[in-house]
């Protein structure tokens, strides 16, 4: 019946070999899209995590107004730093063995973390002149703001009635100790003094211009400028800090006078209204102390402000009588000119604010 070899072969059906390809292509496309989405989500989370763990740029710093803080609700502090129990604070300080400082808030103790890092522990005493609110202001502030010329807070303790702040250790102590205190024998050179002044000014500028809203320190003084092993300066003690809104406010009114006698701007004394210029005036007193090595209030024999003391000598052309005598050998013509220019600038600021 089959006339040739091919006539009895059944006709071939149309090949379906391309069907798996047509099915696979959409599946692959969907998988690729899903994979890209997963990668994008991971990258975004990693970027957010990195940003949250790094120092915030100056123009991105946010500060929570003090009226929203509540000691009874520790979560309101919103601190990102490590929280310690009181028992852990006792271990860190070896049962509060060595006191390295003291103020109206209480004592500052030397301490070591488990990893061997040396720290300073500021413990509020029950008889502290610094209120709980002021103490929490400092904790909140240091948790939110970061700058190389502001002291760093490592952690805190808010354990029942016990309040403590754990700071980086500043081995060279406060600036005033180098000008007139326990480090008096080791004279700061003119170059070191200039650098300390510049770094302190950078920290203060960050508070005024790098934070949103701007912050006013209200207690700028040589005992609140700390030095590390490299004599790098950092501003400390933020218990009296005030937020200031440039957009809506021309000043901040306070219910009571705070600060340290000799550093307080005259307009604040009379009006109880503070602006960033209040800090600038105080920093001017700091600059006079750095150049002269003299305290803010001198007794010769009657009490006199350092501003008046400098003015009297400069008016007589006695620049050598103003500059710290311990810096002997550093006074060439150029240096004396710079010192006179610095002192004149500070005094012009103080004259605009009136005598103190």
TrEMBL record:
Residue ranges of every copy of the Protein kinase domain listed in the record: 94-356
Q: Which keywords appear in this protein's UniProt record, sorted alphabetically? A: ATP-binding, Kinase, Membrane, Nucleotide-binding, Serine/threonine-protein kinase, Transferase, Transmembrane, Transmembrane helix
Name-wise, this protein is non-specific serine/threonine protein kinase
Catalytic reaction(s) noted: L-seryl-[protein] + ATP = O-phospho-L-seryl-[protein] + ADP + H(+); L-threonyl-[protein] + ATP = O-phospho-L-threonyl-[protein] + ADP + H(+)
Q: Which GO terms describe its molecular function?
A: ATP binding; protein serine/threonine kinase activity
Compositional bias of kind Polar residues:
51-62
Whether Nucleotide-binding counts among this entry's keywords is yes
UniProt-listed Enzyme Commission number(s):
2.7.11.1
> What is the organism field in this record?
Aegilops tauschii subsp. strangulata (Goatgrass)
User: Family per UniProt?
Assistant: Belongs to the protein kinase superfamily.
Gene3D superfamilies the UniProt entry points to: Phosphorylase Kinase, domain 1, Transferase(Phosphotransferase) domain 1
Region annotation Disordered: residue ranges? 51-74
Binding positions for ATP per the UniProt entry: 122
Organism's domain of life?
Eukaryota
Residue ranges spanning the membrane: these are 21-42
Question: Does this UniProt record's set of keywords contain Membrane?
Answer: yes
């Amino acid at each position: 019946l089959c006339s040739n070899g091919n006539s009895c072969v059944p006709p071939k059906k149309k090949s379906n070999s391309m069907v798996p390809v047509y099915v696979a292509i959409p599946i692959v496309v969907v998988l690729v899209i899903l994979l890209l989405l997963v990668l994008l989500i991971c990258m975004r989370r990693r970027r957010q995590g990195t940003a949250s763990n790094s120092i915030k740029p100056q123009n991105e710093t946010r500060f929570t107004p003090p009226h929203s803080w509540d000691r009874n609700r520790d979560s309101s502090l919103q601190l990102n730093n490590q929280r310690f129990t009181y028992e852990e604070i006792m271990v860190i300080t070896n049962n509060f063995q060595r006191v390295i400082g003291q103020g109206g808030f209480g004592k500052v103790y030397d301490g070591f973390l488990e990893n061997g890092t040396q720290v300073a522990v500021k413990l509020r005493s029950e008889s502290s002149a610094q209120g709980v609110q002021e103490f929490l202001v400092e904790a909140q502030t240091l948790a939110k703001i970061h700058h190389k010329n502001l002291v760093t807070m490592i952690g805190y303790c808010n354990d029942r009635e016990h309040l403590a702040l754990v700071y980086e250790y500043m081995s060279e102590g406060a600036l005033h100790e180098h000008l007139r205190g326990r480090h008096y024998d080791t004279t700061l050179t003119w170059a070191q003094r200039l650098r300390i002044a510049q770094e302190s000014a950078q920290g203060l500028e960050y508070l005024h211009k790098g934070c949103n809203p701007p912050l006013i320190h209200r207690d700028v003084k040589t005992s609140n400028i700390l030095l590390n092993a490299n004599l790098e300066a950092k501003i400390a003690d933020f218990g009296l800090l005030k937020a200031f809104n440039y957009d809506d406010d021309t000043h901040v009114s306070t219910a009571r006078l705070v600060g340290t006698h000799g550093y307080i701007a005259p307009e604040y004394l009379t009006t109880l209204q503070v602006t960033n210029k209040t800090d600038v005036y105080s920093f001017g007193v700091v600059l006079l102390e750095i150049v002269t090595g003299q305290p803010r209030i001198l007794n010769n024999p009657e009490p006199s402000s350092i501003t008046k003391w400098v003015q009297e000598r400069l008016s007589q052309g006695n620049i050598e009588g103003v500059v710290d005598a311990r810096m002997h050998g550093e006074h060439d013509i150029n240096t004396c000119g710079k010192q006179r220019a610095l002192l004149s600038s500070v005094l012009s600021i103080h004259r605009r604010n009136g005598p103190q």
